[in-house]
Design a protein that fits this description.
The protein is an alpha/beta fold. The chain is built from twelve helices and twelve strands. A hairpin with a 2-residue loop joins strand 9 and strand 10. Bound molecules: adenosine-5'-diphosphate (ADP) and magnesium ion.
Length: 393
């Protein structure tokens, strides 16, 4: 017979141990032992409940109880399986105690069989009959005291889980705030450029100059639109992934960083043409990943250096390698770089770039590897991303 038993969800907001959770369930299938034990416990104001069947015993334990007193005969006429099932379904904090009233005497085939049956029941205390009432009571009191400790551990685990949830919520808020700040920063640059261009157009300019300034302003506006679109696409609507040409995205990122690359005296060696590998992605996401890695590489080359970008197709996968001859990542920072807010750039860093990168990779099922070296003569960092190859359509 299969019975479905669910442990009561023990969540009272004040973390109080309820009466139900401390009651003792009694089950003695033959004779009047059950009623006698119940009368004894009631006299001592120990809450108890006499069960009439093993199934009822199981249901009551699952509802919530402090301990159970069961006569071993229960396992002679009944299958022990439902009780074993209840015991095995206990939550991690629980080790439900059971006092088993055994029949004393020699070791027989039957006593050996019963011993094997009760083994999987867990926290079992054997009391050989006839039992003196004081022995039963002191054993039960000890068992209930230990059970209270289990409830305390449960309550501490719940408090810890709630605190952790609150921490996660506040961390999410902080991430949102920082993201808003970095997007505002991204948008501010083109807006400043547009303001300057409009200022110039107010002056005395020739028609061809006006055309040029208008063209520039339009390009800057397109940048703003692109940034907001990308942000909305990534954080709000999951845009449909399409066949995306990796080389094209690499190109567009290098264009975007053109002025920074020049200013940092960085030489670029890109080998992304030729086989023109295509992956399934939203172009915005792949662009964001490449932009984050290239941005970090430029940051790492304060006194110039070399930036390598290479695609290779191997076993139905595209490997994009982005390497730099920059300062390298400190060994103690390396294991944490994909976590939010990890930055070595002080006020100028957000520590979000690689975290966002990792989120995008996870979402698309891509993988990333990083190697970094900080030797005086030979320092640098290599990131390589692997993405499944798609047939170009
Ligand atoms: N190519 C690289 N060379 C050296 N350090 C790097 C490189 N890429 C990442 N890092 C390290 O990882 C940290 C986290 O990077 P990231 O998440 O993009 O945040 P941020 O750029 O805002 O600091 C950086 O602060 C830097 O210490
Ligand atoms: Mg960064």
């Amino acid at each position: 017979m299969a019975i479905c038993i669910r442990w009561r969800t023990p969540l009272s907001p004040e973390n109080e141990i309820s009466k139900t959770e401390l009651r003792t369930i009694i089950f003695t299938p033959t004779g009047r032992d059950g009623d006698l034990i119940a009368a004894l416990l009631e006299r001592l104001a120990i809450l108890c409940h006499v069960a009439r069947s093993l199934e009822e015993t199981c249901a009551l334990i699952a509802e919530g109880a402090g301990a159970a007193i069961v006569a071993e005969e229960a396992f002679i006429t009944n299958s022990v399986a439902p009780l074993t099932e209840v015991m095995q379904r206990q939550p991690a904090w629980s080790d439900f105690p059971m006092i088993l009233l055994t029949v004393g005497g020699r070791v027989t085939y039957e006593s050996e069989r019963l011993r094997a049956l009760r083994r999987p029941l867990g926290n079992i205390l054997l009391l050989e009959r006839p039992i003196r009432p004081e022995t039963l009571i002191s054993t039960l009191e000890n068992v209930l005291r230990a059970r209270r400790r289990q409830y305390q551990i449960r309550d501490q685990m719940q408090q810890y889980a709630r605190a952790q949830e609150a921490l996660l919520r506040s961390e999410k808020l902080a991430v949102t705030g920082r993201l808003a700040a970095s997007i505002a920063h991204e948008i501010n640059n083109p807006l400043e450029a547009i303001t300057n261009l409009l200022y110039l157009m107010r002056g005395n300019v020739r028609a061809d100059e006006r055309q040029y300034l208008l063209g520039e302003a339009e390009q800057e506006l397109a940048r703003v639109t692109e940034i907001t679109k990308q942000t909305l696409r990534f954080y709000r609507e999951p845009a449909q992934p399409t066949h995306t040409d990796v080389a094209q995205v690499v190109d567009s990122v290098l264009k975007l960083y053109g002025s920074r690359i020049k200013a940092a005296k960085v030489r670029v060696q890109a080998q992304c043409r030729g086989d023109a590998p295509v992956v399934l992605s939203t172009p915005g996401e792949l662009r964001q990943v490449i932009a984050n890695l290239v941005g970090n590489a430029i940051d790492a080359m304060k006194t110039g250096g070399c930036l390598w970008l290479r695609t290779a197709v191997r076993q139905r996968a595209v490997r994009l390698t982005i390497a730099d001859s920059g300062a390298g990542i400190p060994a103690d920072v390396l294991p944490t770089i994909f976590e939010p807010f990890v930055t070595t750039k002080g006020e100028t860093g957000t520590g979000l770039g690689l975290w966002v990168t990792a989120e995008i990779l996870k979402k698309n099922g891509w993988s990333i590897r990083v190697r970094s070296c900080r030797k005086p003569q030979r320092s640098g960092t290599i990131f390589s991303i692997e993405m499944p190859l798609m047939e170009a359509s």
